[in-house]
Amino acid sequence: MLSKASLSSLVLLLSATLTRSMPLELDSLDALEHELDVRTTLPSIDCSGKRTGIHFTDNSACQIPVIGQDPMAHCPQSGILVDPSMTHISADYPTYPTIQKAIDSIQSDRRKYTIVVMAGTYNETLNITRVAPLTILGQTYDPLDQKKNLVKVIGGTANYAGRYTDNAFSASLTVAPNLNASLTGAGPTGFNVSADTPFGNTDFRVYNIDFSNQEFEQANGPALAISISRANAGLYFCGFYSYQDTVYIGKLGNAYFYKNEIAGQTDFLYGFGTAYISNSKLLMRSCGGGVTAWKGTNTTFANKYGVYISSSDLVASNATIAAKMVGKCALGRPWNALHRSVFMDCYMDASIKPQGYIPWSSQPVPETLMGEYGTYGQGWNPSGRMLTQLSNGVPLVMTTELDDNTVKPYRKPEDVFITPDGKSNIGWIDTQFYAW
Ligand SMILES: *[C@@H]1O[C@H](CO)[C@@H](O)[C@H](O)[C@H]1NC(C)=O
Ligand SMILES: *[C@@H]1O[C@H](CO)[C@@H](O)[C@H](O)[C@H]1NC(C)=O
Ligand SMILES: *[C@@H]1O[C@H](CO)[C@@H](O)[C@H](O)[C@H]1NC(C)=O
Ligand SMILES: *[C@@H]1O[C@H](CO)[C@@H](O)[C@H](O)[C@H]1NC(C)=O
Ligand SMILES: *[C@@H]1O[C@H](CO)[C@@H](O)[C@H](O)[C@H]1NC(C)=O
Ligand SMILES: *[C@@H]1O[C@H](CO)[C@@H](O)[C@H](O)[C@H]1NC(C)=O
């Protein structure tokens, strides 16, 4: 911990670095403390010259509100402000009252735009179809702590009783080039888009925003908080809250979640694409289905479509529910015969079923990878994981324990994210939050 005196001198130093026009208010000191700790303790370079640890973020100066200062004073040139009160109007940047209005204002050119969202709660659903890079920054006093997010987006609905023809219509946040690309469809291969369907956003990033799909405060059919298809999306210090089917990463979708909190139940990480969840908290609100449910795709090249959860916690969402869930939650179940999911170095609490993964009704599971590596905590039961279960009448051990060697093909984001034609694809990941 830093003393207040050294903190103040650091703040002065920082103010100078950020060319703030006003000194920070005292209130901001505590909020900055954690960040300054990180800044002063972590920056280091490993022997290969790569940065390690977390640094003061490139976006902080723009994200941290300073009383009496224009909210865009330290934001990128192509900034667009979202201010529900419409009090900050300037010739230097456009202002919109809602996030979707700001998104819709952007032309379909190749420039990178940054939308800055003022602290507040927004009742809206977001839909991003543009191809060129787009960053959405939530204002916050602490860009390195999701728990302190000040921007909440509440939107989306539940697809109950066949209300919609597809779950795509339920989402709080959608990133896909068009409607067809976002559709789930049915059957082992899902919705088949026309061959000329384009790829959507190549570099979409959100920082410090919480998304909730809370039409019902309970499971009532699929209710997506995030839906990413044919797009590359980085989600940093965000929250995603719903019940059934919270996170959907559709076909050719790539999503990197860093230090997020994701709450859901029943197949709440599902899809066709590739998701890598790092240093995050997965909160189970109940059991049912599994945590993961993936549909793999046959391609002419080797793909790694699947969901990878690394250095994260998989825990009951609160103590009351935890007591009722002991030994009941499955790590996942195969949505088709090519399901792939791997938990790596994760902490799991006692909610996890001794067997780990489970079959999906009578479906055969010939080529699935339902993997685990380095699990620890009460949810880790080595003999339980070896229990034989029936899949299509055939006795099977569902969970595959991976070792240092067999986990290698999936260990890092750079190992799994690919372009539609199978080439490595991580240029869209923020290197500040890429720990390898
Ligand atoms: C958002 O919805 C909630 C609940 O319906 C309501 O209380 C709140 O006033 C709404 N906020 C805005 C900014 O419309
Ligand atoms: C997203 O916007 C596009 C373009 O306006 C629209 O065609 C599509 O239906 C929207 N997606 C969803 C899921 O509403
Ligand atoms: C979307 O899919 C429907 C059903 O297959 C098809 O009729 C329609 O032409 C598609 N739209 C686009 C834009 O590809
Ligand atoms: C999907 O559509 C393509 C044409 O866009 C077609 O060649 C292919 O057979 C279709 N696949 C399925 C499973 O229907
Ligand atoms: C615990 O979590 C469950 C499921 O989300 C919720 O229904 C319940 O209200 C929560 N209880 C407390 C005390 O927060
Ligand atoms: C993938 O290919 C295998 C072998 O050709 C086939 O049995 C399986 O049904 C295919 N799966 C999908 C999801 O297309």
TrEMBL record:
Enzyme's top EC category: hydrolase
Q: Which InterPro entries match?
A: Pectin_lyas_fold, Pectin_lyase_fold/virulence, Pectinesterase_cat
Which Enzyme Commission numbers does its entry carry? 3.1.1.11
**Record-level Gene Ontology MF annotations:** pectinesterase activity
Picking any one GO biological process from the record gives: cell wall modification
Name the keywords, alphabetized: Aspartyl esterase, Hydrolase, Signal
Q: Which SUPFAM superfamilies match?
A: Pectin lyase-like
Domain Pectinesterase catalytic, first and last residues per copy? 202-386
Domain of life, per UniProt, equals Eukaryota
Signal peptide per UniProt: 1-21
**What's one Pfam family the UniProt record gives for this protein?**
Pectinesterase
Pathway assignment:
Glycan metabolism; pectin degradation; 2-dehydro-3-deoxy-D-gluconate from pectin: step 1/5
Q: Which family does it belong to?
A: Belongs to the pectinesterase family.
User: What name does UniProt use for this protein?
Assistant: pectinesterase
